[in-house]
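Sharing a chain and its predicted structure for anyone who wants a worked example. Both blocks are below, sequence first, tokens second.
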Amino acid sequence: MLGLGVTALLFAGIEAGLRARYKPEALLFEWERPTGLIATSDAGNIVTQPNMKATRTDGPYTWRISLNDLGFREDAPVPRSKAPGSLRILAFGDSWMFGFSVDQGATIPDVVELQVSEALGRPVEVINAGVFGSGAFDMLTRYRQMVDVYHPDGILLGQPHNAAHSRSLAASRATWYRSVREGPASTWRTYLLVRRWLAPLRSGMYAEIAQGEGREPEYQDMRTLAQDAHKRGLPVWFIQLPNRLDQALSGFTGSEDWTTELAAEHVLFAGHSLGERACWGFEDIGHPSAAGAFAIATTVSRMIAEKQSIPVGDTPRCVDGPAPGPGKPGWEWAHP
């Protein structure tokens, strides 16, 4: 009885501490929150919710999100017709293109818009249609939905990091979401926190490539997109990106697989090695910091303005740019 009493008191103390620190919504998964930013469509694709606003933190860095009426990471609705003399680029990708852990107005598309406009001396509009958690198949389907509506002058693609590349896998992802949702309903913070810890151990966050299937479906989705854009006379630019922090710090020089697969599709390539700690988030080491996004965008802007591929390199340095990043003056390290 004494042991049970001590255990109950310990649990009550932990629960009280968690209740003082967390609201229930903070421990729910993104797709469970009443104000969640993503959902799955009827076709099984990951989509961003329209007209949503949110604020998130990454260590000492606070970043804002604003989604327009169609779920694009834009502050306002995008008119179907372009402004006279302007250049319109559609940007597709996952959380890196969306700008996870990067403030509104500081994402890769935002910086490319400003820099290419300055380089070309004409108005440039880069529509951020990135969806975090999505993959190559989602990018292809979103391209098909948008290309005849917004009449772009070019397509910017971020290297897919998530192996969600077919309807069957998108359905598998949706099934995983539902299985998590079907857990016992509770507002106990201890339960919600433990559930968040255990969920990645039960299943990967995103659908994995089917065993024996390889990455060919992803390559095929991107080839299909690039082929269609080429037939329309649209240039396609592809951003080469490392998959994780340790890969970047060990010397990322680009992916030969992607350049080989898309070499015949008239695609131009550029990227950044992100080989400094300042290039990555404070606590979020799976996404670039604002400094990293600025460095990537600067290289991409050169590729678009100069109409040629730019080899993956380490310039501009993330520590030298104007955007925040770990270890830069005025910003603390979240971890040693």
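Comments welcome. The radius of gyration is 21 Å.
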